[in-house]
Amino acid sequence: MNSTVKEYTYYPGCSVRTTAKHYEESLLRVFDALGLKLYELEDWNCCGATLCSSVSRLTSYALSARNLSRAERQGRDLVAPCSACYLALNKTKDYLAHDEEVRQKVGRALAAVGLKYTGGVRVRHPLEVIITDVGLEEIKKRVKRPLEGFKVASYYGCQTTRPYKEFDDPFYPETLDKLMAALGAEVVDWSLKTRCCGGSVTGLVEEVGLRLNYILLNEAHKRGANVIATTCPLCQFNLDCYQSKIIKRYDLGFSVPVVFFTQLLGLALGMSEKELGFARVMVPMQPLLRSLIGGEPIRA
Amino acid sequence: MSNDWEPKIVAFFCTWCTYTAADLAGISRMTYAPNGRIVRVMCSGRIDPQFVLKAFADGADGVLIGGCHPGDCHYQAGNYKALRRYTLLKRVLTEMGIEPERLRLEWISASEGDRVQKVMNEMAEQVRRLGPLHLEKASRRAQVKEKEREAVGVRS
Amino acid sequence: MPETNGAPKIGVYVCHCGVNIAAKVNVSEVVEFAQKLPFVTVAREYKFMCSDPGQELIQQDLREGKVNRVVVASCSPLMHEATFRRATAEGGQNPFFFQMANIREHVSWVTEDERDATEKAKALIAAAVRRVAVHQPLERKRVPVHPHVLVVGAGIAGIEAALKIADAGKKVYLVEREPTIGGHMAKFDKTFPTLDCAACILTPKMTQVRAHPNIELLTYSEVESVEPYDLRNFKVRIRRKARYVNEDTCTGCGLCADVCPVTVPSEFDEGLGTRKAIYRPFPQAVPNVFTISRRGTPPCQAACSIHQNAQGYITLIAQGKFKEALEVILRDNPLPSICGRICTHPCTLNCTRATVDEPLNIPGLKRFVTDLFPDYKLPQPKANRSERIAIVGSGPAGLMCAYELRQRGYWPTIYEAQPVPGGMLALGIPAFRLPRDVITKEINRLKEIGIEIKTNTPLGKAITLEQLRKHYAAVFIGIGAHVERKLKIPGEDLPNVWGGIEFLRRVNLEGPFKLGEKVLVIGGGNSAIDAARTALRCGAKEVTIVYRRTRAEMPADPKEIAAAEEEGVTMIFLAAPKTILGSKETGVTGLECLRMKLGAPDASGRPAPEPIPGSEFVLSCDAIIATIGQVPDIASLGEQLGIETTKWGTFKVDGVTLETNVPGVFAGGDCVTGPDVVVNAMYAGKKAAISIDRYLNKLDMRAGRELEGPYRTEYAIDTSGTPVQKQIPMPAIELGRRRTFDEVHTGYTQELAIAEAKRCLDCAICCDCRLCSTVCEPKAINYEMKDKIEEIVVGAIILATGFKTFDPRRAPYTGYGRYDNVLTALEFERMVNSAGPTGGKILLKNGKEPKSIGIIHCVGSRDKRFNPYCSRVCCMYSLKFAHLVKERTKAEVYNFYIDLRAFGKGYEEFYNRVLSEGARLIRGNIGEVTDVALSPEEEGKLIIRVEDTLAGVVRRIPVDMVILATGLEPQADAEEVRRKFSISCSKEGWFLERHPKLAPVSTFTDGVFIAGTCQGPKDIPDAVAQAGAAAAEALALIDRGFVELEPNTAFIQEELCSGCKTCIPLCPFNAISFTSEKGIAVINEALCKGCGTCVAACPSGAAQQHLFTDEQIYEEIEGVLSYV
Questions:
Q1: Cβ-defined contact of B58 to C1117 (cutoff 8 Å)
Q2: pLDDT value at position A296?
Q3: What ipTM goes with this model?
Q4: Chains A and C touch each other (3 or more Cβ pairs < 8 A)
Q5: Chain C residue closest to A212 (CA)?
Q6: Model confidence over C476-494: pLDDT tens digits?
């Protein structure tokens, strides 16, 4: 990778400021370390995903469109870490491009607040940014602390590669696996990489969500994973926060820590556990970290 | 259509690729704008620039040239010749005050019936937007241009 | 325009084409309109103009003189122009007094509005009328058609077509790119719906092809190019790929395959089975001969300066064929037991395995073999000659040169200055890396084949160059580089400051001696490491290496560095010596160093160390060894010998021949290159030997020597899925014994050697061990074989290039490539084939019989993501599979289908039969194949998730084996092929037929026909039928022996031609030439193909084209515009 700093507009979304703080913490540090500069989108608003979209599609498009049009002014690619946002933004782009009615109505809505969107923004997932703009070879070079002993199950969730397979296969993606392998971790091959985590349903119809997450945890464990790496706040939340319940309900004989891929990446790049917010994870990561990388880890 | 004017378009198609594609469009019942009138030639290389000028002179509002994709010419290189003449012709038309958009060249292979449909429709749209071609207006436009040039001392 | 048949009387005939035209075009209105057009005397309409009564209408009017020119407004001229021209002719007029208006394909079928359609029809008719008015009578020209036919592709379609034509007594060239004919069908077991065995019906046809006197079979060949031979025939160039086996002498006995050590997956068995590097796809192959898969020199061998065939002996070791391995080694290397120990092995640096995990330990394996046969002999020279050659220096360069010369029959004598032979091998390399007896043995072997060695005979002192030149036919000088570089710092001349080579030489010649307790070694090369480890063995307590760069830049072999550290050598990096402290009395007491930092890369590409001012520090010591390289420093000697030298104090030689300025005197090795590795010295020796041989035979010393010495080859080898398996470390003596001069590494055991050798990836496939040629009695094997180009002329071509199957890796939801026991249809075909890898048994990877099997239809077909079309054969072969499973196992069979397509004779019946046999069918496009068990009964199974669209429920069906009904796709190179034969492809890439219904095997290029699946997915019966049709078309063409050409050639109106020559370069067929006597251009009608490009370019309008004169086209333009 050439040493010149690459710049992006950054759309945090609500999750990384609430339930997924550790995603943002690790993301910002990792991006900084890799020479990827993020400029937070000024006055950004809800991406319109989940609830809103089920109440009024147009509203959610309008919301995303507002973010897009503001981002377009910046003239940089838009990085959205939360896959719900990532999808909502891409979906809106898609509809604005192909659905005349949506284009007109949303256009009017934007015009009302003196905005317009001409389709010039590329919405990107941080995972894809790291893989394409930095590259695995470069990452390998920068690894200070290979993740030996980490048996990682990569979990992409449903939205990162579906329906918009922008950078990987919708059913059996491999980007994250390759990244983890590059960090020296042992990658666990399993076929639930994009299987549903229950999404917001877990909060509404709990037993359904619990079962879905049980299937995921159980399978990951069966395949020998000692940690699950996610790219999505909601997935991480479901798998992590409901885990104790799942353990009780299905008397699981084990527990698997669930972290964001950026946390593991940061760890390999030599950052400290504290910086990477491992403490925020419900299912404690510490035992694993202690057993694998021993005492206080080296600093970057 | 508000006014009853309809563009007249002459389409010179090579027999091997584009004319056949037009047949395929027919066989596949792909309807398209009726404005195009196809004149068959053996190869797009046969299309004499004078054909195009004549068409405009005789009242065509647009001219379409169709040949085989580069590398596919039945006669090895006829389509390349057509391309060269086309590029030059566009300049000449501009000189004459005729909008170069009235002339279009398309590579359409025998299997691309749908492209014939698309191109015919687009061309009709295009020319409709440009409106009827009035040669005398055109030549006036040309003279004006000429004057401007002389003014700044450039000879065409 | 002179009237040719009186004033035009034009008849216009408008066709209804049933409702095809009439439904959109108001025909009677059009007729009315036509009546009023100039010159039109008759205008009629009729239901079907192409029918006999329709044509009769025209002929009658012509006969009765009502009309003398004809316009038919109906379908496309590509459809019926010929028909109506014939009608016109039969009506008594020249057939070219006819013009067609295409009001079906170009009007009624493509126009929404009836009004528009009618108007457009009028315009086209108006144009046709104006055009035909200026038509002229023309004569068709006949051209002969060459009677031979080319058939490309020898699957069932190609075979069928070839046989048909050959049986008709015509010569056929049948070209197949694979080593055998038979195509996909040869892989099948049974064929639906009749279930007769594919082999039983195919192989007889294959042998017929082989035996047929009229068929020239060109297998393992590809069409290189197709050019027009004349107006109607083709000149085809065919590449006969080198088989390395002579087709005519090979008896197909198969002994070669038995001895071949290389095993690779068998393409024919779809990778389920294996084959050898020399192979025959299957026993009934036609021709029944073998082929060697060779990719050429493997990377390891290419990288080696003396091109040691590493893959060769490694493969043999892996097979336990150690004796043979030794023979391969001795082919190019007379010092293998030395190289096996101390060669810097460039081969491993280029080893493909390194991209997976680690390169092979190639030298280690070589050493293993030589250790196994301690008393091996070098090959005896083939010939003997009279000439004697003098060689100065018995280092690797000298020894290699002597060996190569001896092998060529010369008598070399080596003069060595030192008391022992071997040069740096004996003086510079310590015994614990290269035991002395190993050297002695190698040298004795050389003596045994007649090489003489005289020690203690320095050149320039004991003997002079003059003497040598007088008594010897040629001289090679390889005296190495032995003069130590100086540190050039104060205190260098203090006692107990040694040069590395000086120190090692003393130990090697006089044995170990104590030089101090605390020894510093300066330098980072291999000799620094050697010196340090030797110092330890000489009883030093502490040995420290001081290097001015960092470990990363150390030129020494990382393995050696590691070994040294194991033994207790310590290292100080980024430190450069400044002053050596001490005095004459005390001797060395310490070394003052400067700290360094790495700066910008220097000439060597490594970061240049820069001193940090004021960073001096002192290391205490009582001995220092400076190993910072040597120089030949033969400037003075060179002068004395009269040999030119360079400013670096090395001999100046010709880069290619190694000859010095003194004729017949050659030089090579360190004394030319400066200090370098052993293998490069040997390379120099070999190079010189070749030059000397040519010199003495008065041959060109330079010709064709490009590929001597190292070069890079890279292979695109798919290493994916190669399990990581790191290099096996070579056993070594325990650290305790590392204070003696015992050899450190003890060498691989047989088990280890075989295991290590098995890591080889067979880059070049054939490893060039040449065992096959030793067992081939008819001597059919020829490694020197090259591709040949054959040129043929044919009048007709039939393309039957077939299909490829969809690669389900593109559809990860099928789990193909990730789960065992997910098979493609072709893989399963091989599995159920009684001649296949499992002998027809249906088995899981674990060898057990499956209890349940799922067959998934439409994989890659009828799917927007892949191919929108239906592959037509999958439903039926899936049912066939279901039947075979039922027949051979007790397994449950589930078919997952979208729609069941059992069209065709006996198909529906077969479908019912399979149902009655108990196969289950579930209608639904599957969601995925997964190995995630959600219940005990799903454990260890493959679960197929599918929506049963009939029951309206989502099912999870656990099975042991999944078969993917993979669809058909155009060949990967279809685009390339269609260009070669200048035909068209459909959007999906299938070859395009001239007309979907009426010309299904013709293309838009006259004389080129298509048959079988290259035109689109189809089953065997259809493919065979089409092949017959194509054969018939080709026969009709060549049997008539001529074609009548459309008379649309260009011509020059002499009176108008100005002789400007514009047209001449435009003609792609060189049909136009310039006649100087007339000063005009003339067109050779026999060459003109009638494109009209020259006509369009003619400034004076002298060039014209029959049927497309400017006038005719102008009329047409005015016509279409006069009435729109």
A1: yes
A2: 54
A3: 0.76
A4: yes
A5: C934
A6: 999 998 888 888 999 999 9
